[in-house]
């Protein structure tokens, strides 16, 4: 599930990036253009926005499964997973603030 969510995020992100303008005066209008004028642009944008939430839901399910099966007993693997989770959370917070 995580791989499918990640691939969806990458593909929709690339499709959105083709129509995005990073200029501060044109950024909003480029997003509006994508939603209104690009074929299925609204769908791609919503898939990308909701895909991020789905990705974190799958991560939390993965962590819950790790607790259930006692995977936290393998310290090195568990610590690597915690570092990855913290990195993803900081990255998500950074993107929300932008």
Automatic annotation (TrEMBL):
TM segment ranges: 50-68
BP term (GO), one: mitochondrial electron transport, ubiquinol to cytochrome c
Annotated membrane topology: Multi-pass membrane protein
The UniProt record lists the keyword Protein transport: no
Cellular component, GO annotation: mitochondrial inner membrane
Domain Cytochrome b/b6 N-terminal region profile: 1-98
Superkingdom, natural source: Eukaryota
Predominant subcellular localization, coarse grouping: mitochondrion
Subcellular location: Mitochondrion inner membrane
Position of the signal peptide: none
One MF annotation (Gene Ontology) recorded for this entry: metal ion binding
Alphabetized UniProt keyword annotations: Electron transport, Heme, Iron, Membrane, Metal-binding, Mitochondrion, Mitochondrion inner membrane, Respiratory chain, Transmembrane, Transmembrane helix, Transport, Ubiquinone
InterPro entries in the cross-refs: Cyt_b/b6_N (IPR005797), Cytb/b6-like_sf (IPR027387), Di-haem_cyt_TM (IPR016174)
Claim: RNA-binding is one of the keywords in the record: no
Function summary: Component of the ubiquinol-cytochrome c reductase complex (complex III or cytochrome b-c1 complex) that is part of the mitochondrial respiratory chain. The b-c1 complex mediates electron transfer from ubiquinol to cytochrome c. Contributes to the generation of a proton gradient across the mitochondrial membrane that is then used for ATP synthesis.
Protein name in UniProt: Cytochrome b
